[in-house]
């Protein structure tokens, strides 16, 4: 789950009341029912409380209640001008395939004053996903004029450049961000993917290891495993695939694709052999 983002709402500039502070903590601790209940209570007495609305939306999303989250945030967005809510709502709308609506919300959000940088980042992302690379570039560059030191915007610029096949420029952007923020998780992942373009699997593996030390994500384990296969470090790579898939998870397909797609990978003649391989030493 993404962290709570900064907002221009007045309540963000002062300590939250006890109920909201508890709701924020509950959300961070993945106590989602409690976060939902506390945020709902605040909204009953203060229907315009943006922070409470965001906490409730995130709590619903984390419980896989996406439709409820969309209804809640859409209702709140209709009676406020808060860009953080429109940005969060837009991401959810895009997830369910309502990208045109998402883009409408995001274009409104980037027009708000003061500027809300996460809206620029999300708009660039959704434009990239819809193949509108020129507008994505314009949005990113516009955001950078307002906040040139924004790591998220600089990464967004690198991603757009990569989409436009300007790999040298993209790699330079990612390297610059990593140099300025050596422990930034997303910068590590972006630069790792970029150096693979040059076939530098050793450096990519090192960057993925650093990213794993910050956030031990299964997807990153698979990326690292793929690099290690290219480096012919098969035993460690396959152990990573097994750890990442936990035997049979939604990432199993990604692990199999990684193993069979690299030059020094592994070929499975039967689906059952693949599943048996991933289960080994996982139980």
Automatic annotation (TrEMBL):
Keyword field: Membrane, Repeat, TPR repeat, Transmembrane, Transmembrane helix
One Gene Ontology term from the biological process aspect of the record: protein import into mitochondrial matrix
A Gene Ontology term for the protein's cellular component: membrane
Annotated compartments: Membrane
Recorded GO MF terms: mitochondrion targeting sequence binding; protein transmembrane transporter activity
Primary localization: membrane
Domain of life: Bacteria
Cited Gene3D superfamilies: Tetratricopeptide repeat domain
Endpoints of the signal sequence: none
TPR repeats (start-end): 185-218
Family, similarity comment: Belongs to the Tom70 family.
Protein name, entry field: Tetratricopeptide repeat protein
The organism of origin for this protein: Afipia massiliensis
